[in-house]
Each structure stands twice: as structure tokens, then as C-alpha cells.
Design a protein that fits this description.
Radius of gyration: 20 Å
Shape: globular
CATH topology of the largest domain: Rossmann fold
Helix content: 40-55%
Largest sheet: 6 strands, parallel
CATH architecture of the largest domain: 3-Layer(aba) Sandwich
Number of strands: 9
Number of helices: 12
CATH class of the largest domain: Alpha Beta
Structural class: alpha/beta
Distance between the termini: 16 Å
CATH superfamily of the largest domain: NAD(P)-binding Rossmann-like Domain
Order of helices and strands: EHEHEEHEHEEHEHEHHHHHH
Strand content: 5-15%
Length: about 325
């Protein structure tokens, strides 16, 4: 169980962050929350959170968790005007759950260390629905003592599993590699679903078969409903997938690792963004691939289990 004597702060209540804070509040952990758009955080007040006016207002906590969209956003909320470390009061540990590059993370780690703050890299795997279902997983790296102090809280946020990768920013390597795999998987899932459909197999039938085979996974199951019903409500945007593919390919170039499939996927994602824009869910790649294949898709209007359904009356 978390040590509720620790004071916990939180920065960032987007789709992921909001659900994570809910899990901490459900575990009776007092949390002080700041979000750039205050209105997005305010509903958490009714669940027991304290809503802060500035990022610097959560600096009096022992541990502060951050989840934001990019490295510049993270540096701004930590070191910018009215940022977390802009005053004399500072947390002892900052845990970053965002997906950023290793070089960016290492530079920020050095700046925080100069101010006496331990920095933990802790990227996560999932989306808001995955968090709510209790199926999020995480990987962390950084000073071992600080990681042990943060681990009980992370076990509530990501009860499926929290892996310790070691010192420094090794967790970033794991997450970038994970998201490159995500891109390759959605590409393959879309291509094969279209192949089956053009031959006459409904998407829901092909995906049902796939999900019940050895190739089925939590990922293929929870994306099946979107692919069957053409629902591109964003859980992870095409822009974010492109960013992570670029991060992975940049790492590969620096270490002379061949990634031809990831490279081809990145260019397909870029083509998709040119056609459909960058802010819909990345699974919308299906429609762009269909257009390239001379296919006009329609929703199959099927109820497809995602594997993320919550038990009646509560959270997992």
C-alpha cells in the first residue's frame, strides 16, 4: 500500500492523467493536482483532489507525477515561469510518465539533479480506458532508492505490472521500442483486415478469429471495435504515433540498428496524416489503406467486446 504520509502532487490531467489520478484517489491517496486547462482537472475535486492554480503550487509535495504531451511541455512545467521548480520549495522526487526521447530526458534529469531533485523516467503502456480497467503497465528507471519510494503508487496506477529497467533513462528505450511495435502492429492489423474483407470476409469475423488465435492480444482486442465500426475517437493520435516512430528510428540510426519495417510504417503513417489529418485515432489508418486499395468502407455496426469492460458497479 502507498504511504499516505507522503504528500503527492500531479501535473497533467489529459485522457491518461485524469484516469491515473482517479486510481490514486480510489486508493485513498491525497493528491494535489495542476493542469494547464484548469477545467479539465476540476471534476477531480469532487473525488477528493486539491486543485492547484499553478504548477509551482504542487511543489510542496514529496513526490510529483507528471504526464504531458512532449519534452518541451515537460521542461516548461518543471522549470518554466511558475513551474514546479521555480520557487524555493521543491519535491524530492519527480516521476515522469510521458513519452519523450532519451536525450531530452537525460538533459532534464541533469537539471533537476542540480536542484536536488531525483528524476524517474516512467513511461506507461495503454490509454485512459486501459487505466480505468486496471490493465495499464509501466516501466521505470532512475535512482533505485527513489524508484522504490515511488513504486507503491505506481502499483495502484499500473497494477498489471511495473518493471524496473535500471538507472538513467533505460525506461525510455523500452517505451519507444514498445510504441514502434504499436505502429507496426496497427499497420499489420489493418492490412490483413482489408485483405480478408476484399476477399469477402466481414471485418468482425476476421478479427474475432484473430483474437481467439495465438496472435490475439489485449491490443488486437481493444482495437477491434474501432476497426469494425470505424470509430476514430482518439485514444492515441496519429501525430503521437508519428512522433514515437521518429524517436525510435532516430535511436536506430544512432546505434546502427536496421528497422526496415518500422521505416515503412512511419512513411505510411505520414501518408495517412496527409490524407486524414493528425488528430484522429491512429487506427484510422485503416480507411487510408482502404482508399489506397480501392475500397469504400462502411461501419459494420457490431457490438465487439474490447476486453476493457469494467465490472458492473466499479473499477477493476
Amino acid at each position: 500500500m502507498p504511504n499516505t504520509n507522503d504528500r503527492v502532487g500531479w501535473i497533467g490531467t489529459g485522457r491518461m492523467g485524469y484516469a491515473m489520478v482517479e486510481r490514486l484517489l480510489d486508493a485513498k491517496v491525497p493528491v494535489s493536482v495542476w493542469n494547464r486547462t484548469r477545467s479539465k482537472a476540476e471534476p477531480l475535486q469532487g473525488k477528493g483532489a486539491v486543485i492547484a492554480d499553478k504548477a509551482s503550487d504542487v511543489a510542496n509535495n514529496d513526490i510529483v507525477f507528471c504526464i504531458v504531451a512532449s519534452a518541451p511541455d515537460l521542461e516548461a512545467v518543471c522549470l518554466g515561469e511558475n513551474g514546479l521548480l521555480s520557487g524555493a520549495t521543491r519535491p524530492s522526487i519527480v516521476v515522469d510518465l510521458s513519452t519523450i526521447g532519451m536525450d531530452q530526458s537525460a538533459a532534464l534529469r541533469e537539471k533537476l539533479a542540480a536542484k536536488g531533485v531525483s528524476f524517474i523516467s516512467c513511461p506507461v503502456s495503454g490509454n485512459g480506458k486501459v487505466v480505468a480497467a486496471g490493465l495499464l503497465s509501466a516501466v521505470l528507471s532512475g535512482p533505485e532508492a527513489a524508484c522504490k519510494k515511488a513504486m507503491p503508487y505506481l502499483n495502484h496506477i499500473a497494477p498489471r505490472g511495473v518493471s524496473y529497467a535500471g538507472e538513467g533513462d533505460l525506461a525510455r528505450v523500452c517505451k519507444v521500442a514498445h510504441n514502434v511495435m504499436l505502429g507496426v502492429m496497427i499497420q499489420g492489423l489493418c492490412e490483413t483486415a482489408l485483405l480478408a474483407e476484399k476477399a469477402g470476409v466481414p471485418r468482425h469475423a476476421y478479427l474475432d478469429f484473430l483474437n481467439n488465435s495465438v496472435l490475439g492480444s489485449m491490443f488486437t482486442r481493444y482495437k477491434s471495435s474501432a476497426l469494425v465500426n470505424l470509430d476514430w475517437t482518439p485514444t492515441f493520435t496519429s501525430a503521437l504515433l508519428r512522433k514515437d516512430l521518429d524517436l525510435g528510428l532516430g535511436m536506430a540510426r544512432s546505434m546502427n540498428v536496421a528497422m526496415p519495417i518500422a521505416s515503412a510504417t512511419r512513411e505510411m503513417v505520414q501518408s495517412h496524416i496527409g490524407v486524414a489529418g493528425s488528430e484522429q485515432d491512429f487506427a484510422g489508418l485503416l480507411q487510408t489503406l482502404a482508399a489506397f486499395s480501392g475500397m469504400q468502407l462502411v461501419s459494420e455496426n457490431k457490438v465487439v467486446p474490447t476486453g476493457l469492460e469494467l465490472p458492473a458497479g466499479g473499477k477493476s
